[in-house]
Amino acid sequence: MSATTTPPLDVAALRRRFPALSRNVNGRPAAFLDGPGGSQTPDVVIDAMTAYLRGSNANLGGAFVTSAESDALYDRARQAGADFTGSRPEEIAFGANMTTLNFQLAHAVARTLKEGDEIIVTQLDHDGNVSPWLRVADDHGLTVHTVPIRPGDVTLDVEALESLLSDRTKVVAFTLASNAVGSKPDARRIADAAHGVGALAWADGVHYAPHGRIDRAGLGLDVVVCSPYKFFGPHLGMAAIRHDLAERWPADRVRPADETPAAHRFETGTMSHEALAGFVAAVDYLAELGDGATRSERLDGAFARIRAYEEALSVQALRRLTSTAGVTVYGITDPDRVAERSPTFAFNVDGVGAREVAAELGRDGVFVWDGNYYALNVMLALGLEDRGGAVRAGFLHYTTPDEVDRLCDLVAQIAGRG
After folding, report:
1. Bridge partners of 240?
2. Is residue 5's pLDDT more than 90?
3. d(C-alpha 224, C-alpha 240), whole Å
4. Nearest CA to 119 among 29, 191, 200?
5. SS3 at position 159
6. Rounded distance, CA 377 to CA 125, Å?
7. Is the pLDDT of residue 4 over 70?
8. Rounded Cα gap, residues 151 and 134, in angstroms
9. Are 83 and 217 in contact (CB under 8 A)?
10. 163-214 pLDDT, tens per residue?
11. Residue 257: pLDDT above 70?
12. Measured between alpha carbons, how far is 84 from 280 in angstroms, rounded to an integer?
């Protein structure tokens, strides 16, 4: 069934699969609008993790049944990662989290560069795709250029990025969607521009992953990193690395593991097997929301449905928040441009600090974030870092229109007093 004829999400039914969504705070149902910081998990993820620990917990490579089951789990996890990112199983590496993996991979790439080579980062990114490049630049005598954002709508200035490219550029590190304001750059255009000068296209897919279909190969990305705990799985990091690159980059390994192939070479030590079990269950849960013969096809359909639902929530929120006196929304605010952003909203209330707004919402059971959310460059560019940053509310496919209205009602009340 095509995306255009697929029925909409049954949000009431899928919410029943998330135990945390039944929680109450001070007599009010909790509204989990902190999704950009981490999503809740469905029952199948919880069950998969506990089932592994109850019956299959063992290390890899042993001559007994639970070890063989753990080996098989790794194979399933790599296939799930490949299906989720548009990659191949041998291109998938797991780690503690995205930031740890990205530091490790940045150090590996830097060993192949020479003094004077250049790296491009952006003001739109989470610092997990900025600080690793600043660190390796210090270590190896590299130059880092930073692409600015357009302050008006907080989108990436792609023309400025293209003007920074040269034959010295070796890595272009950028985000698929801002974890602060939701802006989504044109990934294909950036990847093509990077490849035009022989540079790597290196994408942070953490914030984008619960909202849109990642296709590493289709977008021309050489590396994409993401975090399953942002798309309904456990705390874990994952990278999809183009096969030929993963095979030749130097990796820090213990000697018995020196012959490990491709991206798996970047997995040091024993992984969290129970987290891998939860990750597979999370990908399968998402695939259930779509139709098709293969898991990849079902994920295509699922994300088409998720995108349509979340865009409707975004229109609802933008119309209300931007029309509330005393509220400033950062980023794309035109409801006709919701396709260019994720359902993530950074805002401030005149006369009321971001932390104070978040705390008041929290007492009413509405969970939002405040501060810089590690999007340091965004907050510096907007002049908000020294003022406590901004409030951030983010919607996921289990967010309801009533929860959006509840957020907007409470913000309007705070703004009225402020």
Report:
1. 92, 224
2. no
3. 5
4. 200
5. helix
6. 7
7. no
8. 23
9. no
10. 999 999 999 999 999 999 999 999 999 999 999 999 999 999 999 999 999 9
11. no
12. 10
- The one-letter code for the residue type at 161 is L
Instruction: List domains and CATH numbers for the chain.
Output: 11-32+294-417 (3.90.1150.10), 47-287 (3.40.640.10)
> Quick one: tokens of 15?
């919410």
What CA–CA distance (Å, rounded) separates 105 from 88? Answer: 18
Quick: pLDDT tens for 111-153: 999 999 999 999 999 999 999 999 999 999 999 999 999 999 9
CB 201 within 8 A of CB 222: yes
In Å, what is the CA distance from 165 to each residue of 53, 94, 169, 402?
49, 31, 6, 46
Select from 411, 362, 369 the least CA-distant residue to 390. Answer: 369
Buried b (16+ CB within 10 A) or exposed e, 339-378: ebbbbbbbbbbeebbbebbbebbbebbbbbbbbbbbbbbb
280 neighbors 73 (Cβ within 8 angstroms): yes
Tokens for 91, please give them: 């291109």
337 phi-psi bin (left φ>0, alpha ψ -120 to 50, beta other): alpha
Residue 223's H or E segment, with its range, is strand 223-226
Closest CA to 245 of 265, 267, 227: 265
Query: Against a cut of 0.90, is the pTM above it?
Result: yes
